[in-house]
Amino acid sequence: MFSRITGTIAARGDASVLLDVDGLAYDVVLPPCVSEKLPRESGERVTLEIFPSFNLEGNSGRFTFFGFSNTIERDFFEALISVASIGPKTAARAFSQPMARIAQAIEVGDYAFLIRLPGIGQQKARDIVAKLQGKVTKFLLIRDAEPRTREPIPDFAEEALAVLLQLEYRRGEAEAMIEETLRAVPAVKDAETLLAEIYRVKNRKAAAS
After folding, report:
1. Is 158 left (phi over 0), alpha (psi -120 to 50) or beta?
2. What's the pTM value of the predicted model, to 2 decimals?
């Protein structure tokens, strides 16, 4: 089983990325604090450290791949799932805050912070501190994502954004779709045309996958 992957972003969600590696597409789950560090534009080339997890479903099973910016982040993930009550999916969701901040909370026993993480209640917070307190020093120095600066978008793009949000797209996903389309088709000047171009891009990606 591989532990690192380098490929081109074929599609991007808030919690996952589809990487094209020489014609093979790999769906990689991204913890939120890792997702923030990755480019949102299709065509960008990235390298991820991978943790594979095998899930049994009835009489069959499938692998889920979790991606990280570096081996230290993956080590922290593996440390977290060493806690008996924490599985890989729960660990990935729990990294909704910067890893260094989570490590600090474990180190000082900040239960109030830990129980606010998705999927972590009081008992799991106690389990995490009992297992990992005093063992997370190297994770305190993990760097946060660099703040992303967004170029102001024109009024018609704001209109398109409002429509996409009404259609229950996540804000980050909708903004990324708008930015990508405006770069690809700069001649767009109204919301209706922008939405039509977003639809064409979405269909083209679906047909290619």
Report:
1. alpha
2. 0.69
